Predict the 3D structure of the following.
Amino acid sequence: MARVSQAELVRVLTGIVGADNLSTSRPDKVAYSADFWPRAQIWKLAGEVERYPPDCVVWPKDTAEITQILAYCHEHLIPVVPFGGGSGVCGGTVPIRGGVVIDVKRLRRVLAVDPVSLTVSAEAGINGQHIEDHLNAAGLTLGHFPSSIMCSTLGGWLAARSAGQFSSRYGKIEDMVLGLKVATPDGAVLDTAERAPGAPDWTQLIVGSEGTLGVITEAVLKVQPLPEARRLRAYRFRHLADGLKGARAVMQAGLRPIVLRLYDPFDSLMAFGKDPEQKTSPRTRPFDAIRSLLSSPSGGAHDDAPAKKVPGFLAKRLEPWSKKAKHAAITTALSAPTLLNRLAQAAPSPCLMIVGFEGPAEAIHADAIAADELLTACGGVDAGARLGESWLEHRYAVSFKQSRLYQLGAFVDTMEVATTWDRLETLYHGVRSALSPHVFIMAHFSHAYREGCSIYFTFAGYRKDAARLEQHYERVWQLATDAVVANGGTVSHHHGVGLSKMAAMPREHGEMLRVWRALKDAIDPHGVMNPGKLFPDTTEVAAGSAGGAARSMVRS
């Protein structure tokens, strides 16, 4: 087949969406060449701001325009990448084969709210906070509060099987969705609510497919009445095992907390600072410096630290020197992760747990008493309401802080894994053991369920030059996913797979990948939909070079 020229591609797509809703400009190509995948940020640190630029970006206004774009791209073997908020952290929207990026943010309407059946219908490009605000005005809530709620979209949540911070009560996004409208690669529209007897559950096949089977354009979801009351509290556990035992006891007793979040000693220290009874020591100073960088808007002292009385003119002169010293201390510490992790392990800090309930006032009072009895029996010490309320107030803040480490030439990343309760502590120690020689690592346990729980690891690393930093990053992820699979966990609980975790899929899913490939071949025979994501075509794939059959048929 003759390749389509860039001019021809632009001409046809302009006829569909209009000249104002298509771009081939370099700034737009840079912006849409990656999501928030940390590896892509490392590319940018090295000066490579657009390793994988798309051929063009389009902003269709409705499902009809999307189907026309897909039909044309399907016919001419042009890769298509659906794009929502761009807040993903797994490289799920990197256009590694070029082609057309379809940004759905113009599809941003709430179509209907049914307060009787408790459902909402909305277009996939709507911002997460906007749909929640719309529901709140009607006395309702979706109950879905991911950390990225202010910069992610409904379609992105569905594509990656997102989990909100209140998932222990309301479930993940796949537990909320009732039906979808999906534009398929050949330009048809699939309404998953129109399911014939014996037909596959297309809703659950599309949810989590990360744009590899089509473009989600609309969704119908369950909603809940706004809660009458809410109560949050903190507990301290001397040992991590005691905290995990308490978390399991709460969930298996049939209680449904909105949040049940247990921090390991290192993450407790970073998230909440020192125990009030703990004095500053040489062992805790490295963590004070890192926490300081990540906790205050200026990267200066702790937000809650008392201000030192320094004359204004002198403070201005000292500030650059203070920041340079602090930054040097952090990069030096991250260059010796084994020592840093040993110091963290030796630092006296309890494991903090945040537990909360919402609903009718009488019901949450009874639930809180029952939880208190269970947690106290497992060694928990009531730490009061202040830390719980503080967590709620600042629960989105981490999304705005990680960029400071990149400014130092370091990287910070997260990995959300999950397993059953009987394997949970082994999984935690297995990943920590694998990564501790290479990166500073900490974790918390959240998204707890009756059967098991997720572990959310955060790790940071440093190398002096960007090329070595990318190699270091790749090695860390290989070790991390190897450890997860070896210890009986799943490598993705709610961030998706994208490019980041794709190489681990054959080890985790084995022969069942044949089912996926049969489904993909049936729906997307040319492999045009978001090629190179989610599952590899072979068992040996290098990140960034994987792909489906489609290659960009666009020529300059």
User: Anything to note?
Assistant: Confidence is low (pLDDT under 50) at residues 277-281, 293-310, 539-548. The longest strand covers residues 410-420.
